Structure formats: C-alpha cells, structure tokens
Hints:
Layout: E1 4-8, H1 13-29, E2 32-39, H2 58-83, E3 87-93, H3 97-107, E4 112-117, H4 123-128, H5 130-138, E5 143-147
Parallel strand pairs: 1-2, 1-4, 2-3, 4-5
Helix pairs in contact: 1-2, 3-5
Amino acid sequence: MYRKILITTDGSAVSSKTACAGVQFAEQLGAEVLVLFVAPEYQYPIYVEIIPPSYPSEDEYRAAMQRAGREHTQDVVDSCAKRGVRCEAMAAFHESAAAKIVDVAQQHGCDLIFMGSHGRSGWGQLLLGSVTNKVLQHSRIPVLVHRLIKEPGSK
Length: 155
C-alpha cells in the first residue's frame, strides 16, 4: 500500500505522540520512514540600528536549528530502529513549514504524509492546526492526520 511515509515533528509532545503512532503504522505496512523537522529561516533583526552582540549569526542559528532537528527526530529514529523500520531523518529550513513538508514529500518519493492534529475545534483548530490544514490543502499525496483525543500529560 504505502512504501515511504513522511512523519513530521516539531519537538512538541503532540508531535512526539503522533510520530510514535506513525512508526507503528509504518511497521504494520512494512514501509520506510522519513522523519522531518522544519525550522524557520534565519531572520535578521529589523528596526534596530546595531545588532546586539548576543544575537546569533546566521551560521550559529543554522547550527543550533540543525542540532534541534537532530534532537527532535532522534526519538523517531530510535523507535524505528527498535521496530526494524528503515528510517532517515532530516532537518530543513523554510518560512512555510507546510510548503516544505509538501515539497520534501514530493522530492523524496513519499507516498503518504503522517502528521498530527490537536483535536481541537473552533479557534483552537484555526490557530493550532494551521500547518496541518495547509498541508491538506496543498499536498498531492494522501495525508493521514492522527488526532490526539487528549493532550499528552493531561489526565
């Protein structure tokens, strides 16, 4: 059915739970996984005449985001290894996480995008599900949205 599944993560508890479900799904199908972390592009400070010395350079920012990407994707890589699921991890930079997710899925030959939703409605869905909604609008491949019934850590 599906041979290569793109699983997205932003390091949050919601995306970690979703990624675990995505790995289980991939294992059931015998599919491989590409796990993706998308960081925003570097932003030069605006409205200041002198850049503060504590403000990171573009190279420092990119290195920090690459490290964050490795940290956020490592749990998925480890989970795949335990389950015998072939996995590749990557971090990417783009102003629109949704656009990058769709682009990476296409470039890497993924046939499914697996991502999470908070399960909220109304304004909560509008504010917190915007990346998922944009991926659903722009993807040409199927998108499986894993909805969490309750927030991680809640009773």
